[in-house]
């Protein structure tokens, strides 16, 4: 048996592929991993799979229909797990075009290829086939401080070019099920953190900047709230929905860990003070408040009761255990950090933050 994963060299995708082979229930299945290796894709995340015949890496683009058709014909996957996307909100504000291309046109192209493949399968394979779309809580927009958390029936109110492109892709997936019967599953997940997280996002950026003695840039007042989920919990949720989720349904996935950004940054500083004390003083001395993100969503919160009620999934990590593991991982993987801080990474940091951090 084989699955096709898109974007499996990125942060969550690479964790998903590694966890797939580590889980006894799925370890025997081949993964065909299609990734364009953009700035966010990193073959080094998958170095431990070198020479492993269960992992077939394909360097290619989800907008390439001919490539998709040939991969589907050759490998006949029983499922597609679709991670590939442009994923950083700040980059979508600087340049939304790539987000429309990959997240909207790419998802459309993949759906069409999947539909062609699925509709020609023999009955038993056709009944078993699944298209799992990995999406985000950002499609629901921003919550007032005391508003109830996002359920699966919350209105779509995306506010950034990134979340609008993901919302568009969710709508396409829904329509391909409704109109053509394609057996889709969608998960909308909150903020992930953990190993292999590219240091343009809040948690890894704060860790690598602190270790380099650079400023820790908090947008605005830093009281924006996110719900944080350790990445291996997201991967186990996807495996659960893929195995037992009801076709055509969406499932919200979250960590029950709502925290303001300021608290996240203070927690990271305290862990670094403990694990890698800096003779120059506590890491909080590096905190700096910078101009806010345009259109910055104030609060996200996920109500993850449906996936628990229907499928028995709950996160295994608390925020305390997950953030400690994450900080340790970055301390132990200085080579990986150095490897991703290439010229293009430095260009982004300069473009976005100016010369300061
Ligand atoms: P990422 O940016 O780390 O990785 C994206 C991967 O997709 C990279 O490996 C990149 O090379 C690949 N890719 C980009 N364009 C491609 C294309 N045209 N063809 C093929 N591959 C392409 O992203 P991530 O944080 O791992 O997120 C993965 C998915 O999960 C995304 O769909 C994102 O919207 C969703 N998501 C992310 C989070 C989060 O907190 N990071 C939370 C919820 C949902
Ligand atoms: O909610 C799920 C989403 O979480 C995913 O769909 C996205 O792919 C993922 O990037 C993430 O989006 P956010 O915008 O919430 O994540 P980010 O790490 O960029 O920012 C988290 C919060 O921290 C947000 O309120 C902005 C703030 N922030 C971020 C950076 C990079 C700062 O204060 N300073 C920073 O330098």
Task: Map the helices and strands.
Blueprint: E1 2-6, H1 11-22, E2 30-35, E3 55-59, H2 65-75, E4 79-82, H3 89-94, H4 97-119, H5 123-128, E5 130-136, H6 161-180, E6 184-189, E7 191-193, H7 202-211, E8 216-219, E9 225-230, H8 231-244, E10 250-253, E11 258-260, H9 261-275, E12 287-290, H10 305-311, H11 319-332, H12 334-340, H13 343-353
Parallel strand pairs: 1-2, 1-4, 2-3, 4-5, 5-6, 6-10, 7-9, 8-12
Antiparallel strand pairs: 9-11
This protein binds nicotinamide-adenine-dinucleotide and 2'deoxy-thymidine-5'-diphospho-alpha-D-glucose.
Nicotinamide-adenine-dinucleotide is lined by residues 6-7, 9-13, 34-38, 40-41, 61-63, 83-85, 87, 102, 106, 134, 136, 166, 189, 191-192, 198.
Summarize the structure.
The chain is an alpha/beta fold. The chain has 13 helices and twelve strands. The protein has a domain at 2-197 and 228-256 and 298-319: Rossmann fold, CATH 3.40.50.
